[in-house]
Amino acid sequence: MKKNMLRGILITSLLVLVLSTNAMSAQFRMLSAWAPNFIFTVGAANSFMENLDRISAGDMKISLFGPDVVPTFEQLQPVQAGIFDLAYTYSAYHSGTTPIAIGMDATIGDPTKRREAGLFDFIDKEYNKLGLKLVSFPPLTPYQFIVRDALSGKKPSLEGLKLRSIPSLQNLIQKLGGSPVTMAGGEIYTSLQRGVIDGAPWTQVGVKDYKLNEVANYIVAPHFGYVSTMILMNLDKYNKLTEKQKAWINEAGVKTEQDSVAFFNNLIEKETAYLLDAGMKITNMHPDDAANIEKYWNDGLWKIAKSTTGATGQAFYDLCIKTGMTK
Question: Would you say 131 and 236 are in contact if contact means Cβ atoms under 8 Å apart?
């Protein structure tokens, strides 16, 4: 009798242990706006996956799916619907749904200061309204223009040039005298090669990956702005996690932001050296444009961020001004 009772207690204890272990284990599916081998994915999405795996001691794992599964500009809705659990994306890619987070790229690219100033929480609350949880907002790299031919040195610096654009870059290109041509990043190489465009704004990391130095001969100085990406999670799925699981997700998000700064700063130095060694040269903007490029960039971003968000966009802008996070 005692043996049976002890056996029953042992079996019950083992079942509780197994069930609690399974309850803590979770497998997630994450969409990425970029291919798995692209440097943005490697430096931030992969970092988040590794951080979460380590922090949770292997209990929370993520499978990554690229734009070949769901196109880059269509990835928000499947996460909102819960078809996928997470999305690694860029705010400008879903500006038609909400442009508010574009304003973050007009702020100082320091993830710790962004959180301390309340910027992260502000954006999180806005995405909560869309059924999404902001998990991480890793800063990556400043922008730079690359062009086929040297600039004239006259003002406006990009006058007469056709340049690849996305909504967040349109105001800047126009202020510099250029004509924006909207196209996906994957079309830049052939468009430069065929003369469809004369240049493109691109991040200081990634020119090498896309081999754009083969079809563009010059890097335009100075660089400008700061590109930050986002990791978003379906809010219902986040809310159903245990408090410990939520803590793991949040810790991995913070760690990924910090890791991305070091990762990309190191790559910027190496890639710039590589491009110059490979034959690219520096061409300079007119001094007036160089002095105002950050203002042109920020003005354009805030215009978009406030365009359809009304008082909310203005409130976010006011918060960034008050905390000294934007100009």
Answer: yes
Q: Do residue 81 and residue 208 come from a single domain? A: no
- Are both 167 and 220 inside the same structural domain? yes
175 and 279 in a single domain? The answer is yes
Could you read off the pLDDT of 251-286 as tens digits, one per residue?
999 999 999 999 999 999 999 999 999 999 999 999
- Domain count for the chain, please give it: 2
SS3 at position 200: strand
Per-residue DSSP letter, 169: H
Name the residue range of residue 246's domain. 26-140+228-265
CA 326 to chain centre: 18
Q: What is the CATH number of the domain that holds 157?
A: 3.40.190.170
Instruction: Give the pTM.
Output: 0.83
- Indicate the DSSP class of residue 26: E
Could you give the CA distance from residue 155 to residue 152 in angstroms, rounded to a whole number?
9
Structure confidence by residue, pLDDT tens digits, 133-148: 999 999 999 999 999 9
Q: Which residues pair with 181 in a beta bridge?
A: 164
If asked whether residues 182 and 104 sit together in one domain, one would say no
Listed in order, strand segments (DSSP E) in the chain are 26-32, 60-65, 86-89, 132-136, 139-147, 162-165, 179-182, 199-203, 218-228, 230-234, 281-284
Q: Which two tokens stand for residue 172?
A: 């800047």
In a domain? residue 5: no
Check if the beta carbon of residue 55 is closer than 8 Å to that of residue 255. Answer: yes
Alpha helix segments (H runs only) across 42-87: 46-55, 76-80
